[in-house]
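As a warm-up, study this chain.
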Amino acid sequence: WVLPMSDARKLVIFDDNAPLYTGLLQDALETKWHVETGPNSTAWLHERIADADAAIGLRLPSELLSSAAKLKLLLFPGAGFIHRDPMELPAGCQHTNVYEHEIPISEYVFLALLTLVSGQAESRDAFRRGEWLGNGRIGGEPRRELFGGTLGLIGFGHIGHEVARRAVAFGLLVQAIRSRPDSAGSNGAGVRILGGPENLSQLLTTSDFVVVACPLTPETHGMLTSERLRLLKPHAVLVNVARAEIIEEAALFEALRDRWFAAAALDVWYRYPSQSGERLHGSRYPFHELPNVLATPHSSAWTEPMIARRARQMAANLDRFARGEPLDRVVLTGAWRSPCGSPV
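Now compare it with the structure written out below.
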């Protein structure tokens, strides 16, 4: 699907995951675009960025700033973004991102809670050895239930809302804090809004299950300190699907190793592999060895339907751009200009 350059704007996709969504994106586009796709490679991009109107990728290499003369839109194909300084993008280039990950992440939250609370993973492994762990007929230890517990949400955006919707089916009471609460009290979804960050201690001390679902910002970085982790109930279960750095690394390991609270599910980490195939645990501490930790490799959101939804969302923003309409989810606008003072 390639249109003559004279009839279409040019989109360059420099994302190693492009084969998963390029066809879906092209099918969803309503405006004319000439699309070129390739690897996340500076050398490849150098040959194609000069006349591009828009691009999809994780990060525009700084050495290509002077070459990206026409670039006015950089779409990040995920919920985060790497560029945070306007000087990292050409002047006037709008940087957008997408979400659509809240559905699989909210499903993961309940997979994690049920796994850790029910003990069925341990029972399954024991049964393979012929042991009847958790069977009441032979004196097995009874397990807990989610029903009737209180679920506390740190953050109440897209993920928080989807988690809250599913919590109702499990008979959970839901309370949340958010960065800019309109007011305390119950919202339309039946969630009790405790207030803003100043109510974090109240949420930790009164919740049986705590889900970290807020963005990583200067205010939330290291927010869950050793002192605050000690506020959790002894039977509490913590789930982090936001960013690892919201919780102090050493304090979290100590808390789980010494069982200040019962268990945790961790899908976000303090370090990541730099390339495919690299073997690496997500922390300098051996969280993966702790029996009360469900450790997963930041995989909770990575589903085919999520990728398809993101492709449609990016296509909609490209259509808005082509029509001269305001863009959705603009996180940054570039300000870099060439040394001579004229815009690139």
